[in-house]
Description:
It is a single chain. By secondary structure, the chain is mostly helical. It has one domain (22-105, 113-222). It has 9 helices and no strands. The chain has helices at residues 3-18, 22-33, 36-67, 71-95, 115-134, 138-150, 157-182, 185-191, 195-222. It is globular, with a radius of gyration of 19 Å. It starts with a helix and ends with a helix.
Amino acid sequence: MTLSTLAALVGIWLVAISSPGPDIVLVLQESLTRSRRNGLYASLGIMIGTAVWIVAAIVGLAAIVRLVPDIQIWMQIAGGALLALIGGLGLRAIWRGRALAPDAPARSAEGVPAPTDRAQEARRALLRGLGTNLSNPKAMVFFVAVFTPFFSQGVELVPTLGIVALLMALTLGWFSTVAMVASLPAVTRVLGRAERLLDVGANALFVLIGLTFVALAVAQLLG
């Protein structure tokens, strides 16, 4: 891959990761309504999910789609259902009276979050980021469309690993920046009174997007 081709790929990638979508909504939600730490762990989960999509696209996802075209529809149904489930579980937690921090860490006698609960909180945010990223069925179409042309001449292991590492660093850097900015005291002060509304709105959006994906896929099957 030439430098000009790599620059084109990086440019497309930066536009893609900075575009509004479920990933950014999740990072904002975790950072604004929970903590900066949660936002950063959600960013890490998104990066891992993105790595899975990239590797799948490079090693043969496009070939699988060509052999079994209907797999896109079923992946869209599964992804939409998972995204709706993530939102639904968040709404259920809010309904149960845990609106601002569904998994708020317990505190010790000194007022410091217990280490075990901090680990559970971090794991929950990471898995939520991973699940949100992997459940977006549009990601499959995007990655196949983007990476197939760039790797149409074959895949060389070392350069490809370097490219994947670069894209992962850009992904983590972008979403971590979003988490850091969203959790700044000035930002949280302005939006502090809207935390509950943001929490409900983000989860409701996940449900709406997920159900829309499922409905469109079912309509395609029936059509």
